Amino acid sequence: MTGPLDPFETDERKALRASARGFAEREIQPDLDAWELDGVIPAELAKKAAGAGLLGVGYPEAVGGEGGSVIDAMVLAEGLMAGGASTGSLAALLTHNVSLPHMVRVGTPDQVARFVKPALAGEKVGSLGVTEADVGSDLAATRTTARRDGDHYVVNGAKMFITSGARADFVTTLVRTGGPGPKGLSILVVESGTPGFSVSRKLNKMGWLCSDTAELAFTDCRVPAANLVGREGDGFGLLMHQLMSERLMLAIQACAIAQRSLDLTVDHVRSRVTFGQPLISRQVVQHKLVEMHQRIDVARTYARAVTARFAGGEQVTAETCLAKIAAADACSFVVDQAAQLHGSMGFMRETEIERHYRDARVFRIGGGASEPLADWAARMLGYHE
Q: Which candidate in 36, 78, 232, 246 is catalytic?
């Protein structure tokens, strides 16, 4: 008897994964070290990805996408990582996955025309402005305000740790239009060049070096009311729905970076000879590889299963948190073991493993740190007073 087909392994998705892998091998991996030094990916990379039919994967054709579901977007990420991309390059290239979905769901035709379609064509860069310096994962405590003044909102506040914030053409921004708590939050699109909106500074990071990260400031910034996404007070709900997708994407990416690290390590221990024998001949090395494989497989199987349930419309808030935590932990273990098995070369900037080791650290923080996600899962599961 055969079981149900894994939705991640249909013929079409295998072809998509292979296409994405080929794109990464041709267009990303050869120049990635230089982009890491530059601190940014080239603008033309997005246009190349759009031309290859990759940038719009998971978005309806009506808004300029290539069709498909969230599963296709995950498969795309897996393929890019298998081809030698870094999660930093994915964060930079695919920032539209966090800046556009709110507009795709409830945006006006004008917003789709001005922001969504150009971003999916690789012509504009969008970022998501949510995190604030002293707020972190407590999004309901957001302090950036947007006061209605005629046909505009006047925005004041600041955002921190914003991916692609330094080069963004627009920022999908969480603002407080009402009273305290989640019901007072809305989403407003702020365009670069708007008076009162500025990039305070570009931030230096441990990893994701080719993905620019910025601190943003809003000082009496007048934004057209037409840039409000949905209705006033819808912001928190829109964001929570999108955060589930984002966390699952991070879980899939964490598993992908772990798999890439394992593959590179297997190649290394087969070719590295010590004391007259290849490293892979040692039982301790074999056991390490087995545990790396096991942790990846368990985390990936769970993350894929939760993703399939999410794509099917199920309520999986707690499971999404758990999938991200499990994938981040598995990734941390695998990249650490990979660096160890590479020996001194695992400590060198010239090796891909060293980059993955640094990049992996963000998975236990970005998209919600593991600790508050565990707290949130406990509430969802009824494990609280």
A: 246
